[in-house]
Amino acid sequence: MNKRKSIVFKYFALCTAVILISFICLGAVLLLVSSRYFIGEKKNLMTKNTEALVSFTKEKLENDPANWKDAVTTRMHEYSISSNADFIMCNKGGFIIYNTAEDSDSSPSVVSSKGLEKFGEKCTYDFGTLGGTFSQDLHLTGMSFAANGPGYYMFAYSSKTEQENYMWTISEIFIISMVGVLAVAMFLVYILTIKFTDPIKEIAEVSKKIGNGDFSVTVPDYDVEEYAQLSSAFNEMAASLKNYDTMRNSFLANVSHELRTPMTSMSGFVDGLLDGTIPKSEERKYLKIISSEVKRLARLVRSMLNLAKIEAGELKPNLTSFSALEPIVDTLVTFEPRIDQKRIEIQGLDVDRVTLYADNDLVHQVMYNLIENAIKFVDEDGYIRFTFTPSGDMTVISIKNSGEGLSEDELPLVFDRFYKTDKSRGLDKTGVGLGLNIVRSIIKLHGGKIMVRSVKGEYTEFIFTLPNKPTDE
What domains can you pick out in the chain, each with its CATH number? Predict the structure, then answer.
């Protein structure tokens, strides 16, 4: 069973979880702040009322000692209603003179002496049972005072029930608001998540089409920077795949052509030899042709294998120090008859030792292919000129031949596989069109570069670089 979840589900769940956690944290902070605010406001109000009652009571005791109690109890009830708290007045011994509470449980007759110890002439706040006077913890403010001789205490007290009701009201409002906001937020997150993942789905659909071989499709540009970068990279990849597909088709077509031509020729000649169409006197001639075509096929297969090894990274160069003149001289000796036949002048070899640090065998192949190409296209009584220029860790080597040269249209194509100029097809019946492509691959394998310059009707020059000493890479 496929247990993988879509990015829509994961992103929606993540956003929902973040919003819920945020609301929970916000609710906790809100309740804490509300509780502190309630207690602070309650403390200030009770303190203010207690001090006001003490001041009023002292005034009545001093100015109207016979009738003070009615006025004071009336004022105590007024403050009790306005502040939602009860008030107690007692003497120094704790005997309660008056209590505004009507509940018998909240109407003790005596205040514990332990409870009186905490309160002095300055109004003080406490949260407790007033020394055991009450059965539950209460918010308390109280102070002592004296008038006409006797001493008294005035207390204001309020139960936790009011605070709890206040907090519950705040919680209800918050929860209702949270549910409403959360519903709207989840809806918006879902819509935005769908919109957010639409480009991914679009790219996935385009990927499927490219996977099925349709390289004409592209991903549109997006407003979001990250998606725009992804779109650009994806379209570049699709273009590269299209180029590779075109190159592959061209490669297969060229290989098929290069293999079919000699094989068709050989098949015809072999059939002619077998059925007697070719006379006995001509058999040797056609056997030589068949041998030449077989060698051509062998060169094609060997070249393709070398290219495949280089591109796959399986061919590791055996780096050694040697003279650059060695592979050049060896190659020139091989082509000596053709050089003499065309009366070619070899220039630039009268130089001091030019050292290379490369794979000797691979450099031999480079020199062989480039010199063979130069001899093939140099004009009679022309020249082939070699130059060597050290440049840091690399040596720049140039092989230049006089002759008809290449057109501007041909220059970018000379290193392509199986590419042959029209003149090359006429001059070279044995080449397979891989020589210069192999040269470029070998030089790149050594970390070098190669380029070609030509002036139509004057010369062609191949310039490339090879390392002349070990590097740190």
Answer: 7-164 (3.30.450.20), 225-311 (1.10.287.130), 317-467 (3.30.565.10)
Q: Locate the DSSP E strands across 302-382.
A: 319-323, 345-347, 355-359
Q: What is the pLDDT of residues 267-305, one digit of tens each?
A: 887 888 888 888 888 888 888 878 877 876 776 677 667
Q: Is 153 exposed, middle or buried (0-12, 13-18, 19+ CB in 10 A)?
A: buried
Higher pLDDT, 344 or 168: 344
Q: How far apart are the C-alpha atoms of 230 and 199, rounded to whole Å?
A: 10
Q: Pull the structure tokens for residue 69.
A: 């109690």
- φ, ψ for residue 472, nearest 5 deg: -80, -15
Burial of 222 (0-12, 13-18, 19+ CB in 10 A): middle
Place of tokens 């109690």: 69
Average pLDDT score over residue span 53-81: 90
How many Cα atoms sit within 13 Å of 383 on the Cβ side?
A: 9
Among 97-111, 357-371, 445-459, name the one with the lowest average pLDDT: 97-111
Angle between helices 7-63 and 68-83 (to 10 degrees): 170
Is it the case that residue 91 has pLDDT exceeding 70?
yes
Which amino acid is it at 375? I
Secondary structure class of 395 (helix, strand, coil): strand
pTM (2 d.p.): 0.46
DSSP secondary structure letters along 124-177: EEEEE-TTTTSSS-EEEEEEEEESSS-EEEEEEEEEHHHHHHHHHHHHHHHHHH
Bridge-based pairing of strands 383-391 and 345-347 is parallel
Residue 30 CA to residue 344 CA, distance in Å, equals 98
Contact 385, 348 (CB under 8 A): yes
Least confident among 28-32, 241-245, 331-335? 241-245
| 361-373 mean pLDDT | 87
Percent of the chain whose predicted confidence (pLDDT) is above 90: 25
The Cα–Cα gap between 386 and 363 comes to 15
Inter-residue contact 272 to 286 (CB < 8 Å): yes
Q: Which amino acid is at 36?
A: R
Q: Which whole number is the average pLDDT over 197-219? A: 78
Residue 190 structure tokens: 């879902």
CA distances from 431 to 263, 266, 298, 331, 419 (A): 15, 17, 11, 17, 10
Give the pLDDT confidence of 374-412 residue by residue, as tens digits: 998 899 999 999 999 998 899 999 999 998 888 887 777
Are 129 and 137 spatial neighbours (Cβ–Cβ below 8 Å)?
A: yes
